[in-house]
Amino acid sequence: MSSALTVIAWREILARVMQGFECQENVSPDWLVNPATKRRLKLDQLYPQVGLAVRWVGLTASGQPRQSEWELLEEEQRNQTRAELCQLAGVELFLLDSSHADPRQQLHQLRSTLSRLSRLLAQGERSDRDKLDLMPQLAAARARLDDVARRVHGPDDLAQFAELWRDRETAAAAATRQPDDKAPPRPPALVPGFHAGQAVCHTAYGPGAVVAVRPNGADTQVTVRFADGRERTFLASLAAGKLVVE
Question: What is the set of domains in the chain, with CATH numbers?
Fold first, then answer.
């Protein structure tokens, strides 16, 4: 799978796992100043409620040459400084390497980070109200991460999450699009009912059979085993028109 698809797959995983938490994108907090250069460092994502920061590593812009050994060393030193400053601010830094050969290892490291955040929250000086509110949310985030981990055995399994991210962006764009008064209203896509054992066909993955149906908030999560033996999971509302009952 291409690096671009891998990145959007991980964006979907993070959005899914950290659902319900405030997320700040591309931020440079005033406490994240590199003492060597006096310049602020960047975080790709910051979840301030629980003190989780995410920094993407291993990314190279399209058309740019690979980093030299010196540039890699400098980046490593910046990440070390970033981690130390985050620790001083009470923030856990998760370095997400989208090019890692084994995504399961990255998922395991993310789970360890979430577990550490729960321990720090329980032992910290936050109010009892904050703890009662945030501890169950972190437990739910770990459960969602475990669900993702059960579906990822190698890099190719990230493709299902890349598709879910595209569906998420499409739904968000549709929600913010201004209605066209001249165009007739479009009827909403019908969401078929699914059940285990049902024969289905996906526009991209071909024929398959439903192996599991689970509630997911107000939506339904449908897991399908396709002819190639792989299992992929979809949200029923986002799969409307793509996943058809045969």
Answer: 3-158 (no CATH), 189-246 (2.30.30.30)
